[in-house]
Amino acid sequence: MIAEKVEEYAFGGLVAAVGVFTLVDASAIAVRDDNAVGPRAFPYLVGAMLVLTGIATIVATARGKLGRAEESEDVDESVRTDWVTVGKLVAVLVAHLVLIDVAGWPVAAALLFFGAAWALGATWWRALVVAVVLALVVQVVFASGLGLSLPAGIFEGVPLLDG
Question: Where would you find the membrane-spanning parts of this chain (predicted)?
Fold first, then answer.
């Protein structure tokens, strides 16, 4: 019983600490204009919610409201880790990180979305179509809708895609 309380306190403290870190780190974000909501708003919101959630967890634990321990997990322990799939996912993520600066967000994101879906067993042509559409939608929303600049790469100068 005491071990569970320590774990709950540690979890609440860790969540609150991550929230404090987020708030401190968000204050270092450069802001061009103070009139708009700006890029600090969302990190401040997330940081504040993390701090409040951590404190609420600590208070609930102090009042004796502990999380129920599960009797067992729904996991088949005889199934081995599929290292080929893990390797594909790592390779796609590394390729995404390398390609962001070289080819731009739309190409890198399309590769990431397609590669992750393909590695997890999706039909390749459907995954490719969805990945390209999703990457372009994210680029347009960030560049044109939010005014935030994701690297356009090969789409530099293309209206709607170049933030």
Answer: 42-62, 89-118, 124-148
Indicate the burial class of 112 (C-beta count within 10 angstroms; 0-12, 13-18, 19 or more): buried
Residues in Cβ contact with 44 at an 8 Å cutoff, skipping those fewer than 6 apart: 23, 26
- With respect to residue 68, please indicate whether it lies within any of the assigned structural domains: no
Instruction: Taking residues 72-80, report their average pLDDT.
Output: 73
Domain that holds residue 52: 2-62
CA distance 37 to 149: 16
What are the respective helix, strand and coil percentages of the chain, to the nearest 5?
65, 0, 35
Residue 14 has pLDDT above 80, yes or no: yes
In the structure, what pLDDT confidence band is assigned to residue 73 with cuts at 50, 70 and 90?
low
Model confidence at 153, in pLDDT bands (50, 70, 90)?
confident
Name the domain count of the chain.
Answer: 2
Element (H, E) at 52: helix 41-62
Inter-residue contact 161 to 137 (CB < 8 Å): no
